[in-house]
Each structure stands twice: as C-alpha cells, then as structure tokens.
Amino acid sequence: MNQIVYELHTLLDKAGERPPYVLVGHSFGGGLVRLYQSKYPADVAGVVLVEAAADNPWRKTPDKGLVRSSDLATGKPIPEVKTSEPLRYSQIPERFVTMIKEQVPELSAHANDPPRDKLPADAKRMRTWSYAQVKMHISNDNPFEAEELGTLRAERARTAHVLGDLPLIVLSRGLPEDSSAAGQKFEEEHNRDQTELVALSRLGKQVVAKRSGHHIPLDEPDLVVAAIREVIAGVRR
Question: What is the band of 144 on the pLDDT scale with cuts at 50, 70, 90?
Fold first, then answer.
C-alpha cells in the first residue's frame, strides 16, 4: 500500500498535476486514499470514499479459514518504498509463476462478469487481456497488507477525526452483496464499518446508493460524480 501511494504521488508530480487534490477511492482504493492523505496531508483538500474497504477485513486462508486481517500480522517492520530498481519478472520464483499460470485461464474468462459487463468495450478488452497476464496477478500480492492496514487502525485510535475538517463523503451500497441468512451478519458489519468511516472527518457525510451493490461506479456512476462535485464545492467554500 505504501508503495502504491508513493508511486501515485510520483506519477502526479511527473505528470505536472499540482495539489491540492480531491481523492476518490473505491473498495481497496479507499485505504489507499486514506494512506495517501496521512503521508501527504498538505496535498489533499477533500476525500470521497466509495464502498471503501474495512480497516480490519476478513481474509480467507487455506489453513485457518476466515480470519481477521489483524490475525495475519507478523509484527515485521513494513519495508521502505522502492524508489528505483523495480522487481523484474525474471526474479520471481518459478513455483509462484507456475502456480499463477494454472489459475490464469479461469480468471481471464471471468474478468467481465456482472456488473463489469457494464464497462465500455475497450475497458472489457483491457480487463480480459490484463487478467491473462501472470505479472498482473503477482503485482497484486502484498505480504505486508496486514501490517499496513494496522497503521490505518492505529491512526484512528490516536484521534477521533483523522481527516480533521476535510470535506468527506462516504458512498455506501444500498443492496446487499449476500442476501442469505449467513450473509446477513457480514452485511450488518459492513454497514457499521461504513457509518464509522463518516467520523474520519468532522464534516463527514454518508450517501447510500439505493440501487447499487459494491460496484457503485458501475451501477450508479452519477452518484459518484455528484459526490465529487459536492466535495469540490466544499473545498472552494
């Protein structure tokens, strides 16, 4: 996560984009937006969290089943970000490459399952291609995710309003992802997590996307646009 935040900061700088920014993060991207703000607070003028992931999510493991992310933390220090010499494909152990190659055909075949079938044709072609690339799946692996999510939880423990008075809108799904009796417990927890995100800022506000599941940008894109415009208006005030 720290590596992605550093690379985004560098990319914006190299592209000539100047702060302050209104940052928008969907799902896992919500944590990245919050981490970006904690690393570069002067650069961020407002935040939109779209179905942002929880700070201590459930993770499925092969040996222990469902566990909290915090249960996977090893206590090892988070590595410093790499500012040069990126990981080369040739450096990846062959056993990892082989393991991923076996899964790639199935992953690529389902790259545009609903609701991603709503994407433009070019975007769907790109997803199909990228999901067939071993490199993409390897780049998604983060052995320090549990520790990095722990830093977000620690920040919230230190202060009630991590974002201070920054304009903040939390966009949350109105349709459950799992309507079964077993899924009800997770839906209730998700709703609590979303409500708690509002308190990140004294100016936090929640908007429920009544016709959307997790993928609000695909189900109700106009709501995302409206939230961004509202935050920008709040910044200008």
Answer: very high
